[in-house]
Amino acid sequence: EQAEDVLAYLVARLPEHVSIVVGTRTALLVDDARLAIVGDVLEIDADDLRFRTWEAEQLLEESYGFLLRPDDVARLTRSVGGWAAGFQLFRLAARDKPPAEQRRLARQASTRSPLARRYLAQNVLGALSDDLREFLLHTSVLGVVTGELADDLLGREGSHDDLVRLEASEVFVSRLDDHTYRYHEVLRSHLEAELEDTIAASTLAERYTRAAELLEGAGHYGEAVRCHVRSGRGHDAQRLASLAGGGVALRDAGLLDELDADEPDQHF
What is the pLDDT of residues 152-162, one digit of tens each? Predict the structure, then answer.
């Protein structure tokens, strides 16, 4: 807080020809909204740093030397959520591999490798309090999270305040509107893996089933489809997919990948 007070003092007194560049992993408490209104601040957040598919194609071909099909690049980009470190993990796994193996790894991309999980645990979640880490862990099944959904799932109150704190902590949690948040796919994948290690399989299936019911009731059909798949209730997933746009809903919820039983899992 003392450093932010000093920064606020400097910003208020800067000459017009002087600029300040600030890098931070948590949201500043400085009143930058006033500066943004008058066009005096440029904010670059996590979404701005995320790789889009066309950028990923350039990275993979020009920097990594991989020749992948556009649909494989799109699937890889979706799997890692555009996360730069996720592409680096793919590079480490796919280097020195023949093109066919590189394409297979891109199609089956996952960020549940020991290296990825260690990175997230130490560098993303390590700075959080125990209660916020527990909140993230047990609400990761939702994907799209509101205070009301989280309260209903956990049987408690105060979840909206926790979501606000998480957004301010810049831990792969983004706001979709005033009340709705989404966990980055990389973070969600990590948390789901942690949850699988923490509770019994039957309890986990029940958790996903409950999450699917809540999401369906709130109109988040795509996420409800995903939860039904994770709970093993494929018939409910197919039923909901027909309401939410058929194959588009299946793709967006990751259902097509879940039902692809011809290829073994491959993590990097």
Answer: 999 999 999 99
Q: Which helix (H) or strand (E) holds 180?
A: strand 180-183
Q: Please check the confidence at residue 219 and state whether its pLDDT lies above 60.
A: yes
Q: What is the pLDDT of residue 37?
A: 45
CB within 8 Å of 23: residues ≥ 6 apart: none
Amino acid at 159: S
Q: CB atoms < 10 A from the CB of 154, how many? A: 15
Place of tokens 């009340």: 179
* Beta pairing class for 144-146 and 173-175: unpaired
Tell me the mean pLDDT in the region 30-58: 74
The residue-averaged pLDDT of 235-258 equals 56
Give the pLDDT band of residue 116 (cuts 50, 70, 90): confident
What is the SS3 assignment for 64? coil
Instruction: Return all residues near 113 (Cβ < 8 A) that are at least 6 apart.
Output: 89, 93, 267, 268
Residue 263, burial from CB neighbour count under 10 angstroms (0-12, 13-18, 19+): exposed
β-bridge partners, 180 = 146
Helix axes 130-139, 185-198, angle to 10 degrees: 90
- Rounded to two decimals, what is the model's pTM? 0.65
Cα gap 77→117, rounded to integer Å: 18
